[in-house]
Request: fold
Amino acid sequence: MKVEWIVVGALETNCYLVYSEDTSECVIVDPGAEPDKIVQGIKSRHLKPTAIINTHGHVDHVGANKPIKEEFDVPLCIHKSDLKLLQNALQSAFGLMIGAKKSPLPDRYLKEGDTIELGASHLEVLHTPGHSPGSISLLGNGFVLSGDALFRGGVGRTDLPGGSWDKLRESINSKILSLPPNTLVLPGHGPSTRVSVEKGSNPYLK
Reply:
């Protein structure tokens, strides 16, 4: 399994392409904006999308769901607890600024322990609420896509509707920092990090 990312939109969201090197099957994680850029990235790599996954329902992570789904005709997946956020994403003025489109309804609701198959490999769903009620992370072989739960040297906001600092801290400690120390953390914004680095130096987790 291989992971590459495309930075999109004014908030520089990391849209991840997770794919099987054997079959070229690909999931598109958090297409937040700039659908043409994402489509080009997929086609230039000769990938075969099988699903769109939103780590949560904020507009900068779902703003390009509609054109990406129309382009590839694949199921849209999100945790059910973020359905309301997904449906109301365009109420934010920021959505207009990044050219977001109203998202289609999900085809599949993801929950803790679900798996997404990619050739002979798979991603495991970790429910990591706190930034939003339905935030998820995606665990692969040696890496975790942490959405907006954990960043390098930071954590997700909890002052938005549905946010909870207590839940976020619990999610990070029990689901992400409990992974092997060398696990690569791939966040929703900004550069990658390692579990060991965040355990040792993240000022929000002291």
Observations:
- The longest strand covers residues 2-8.
- The chain has a mean pLDDT of 95.
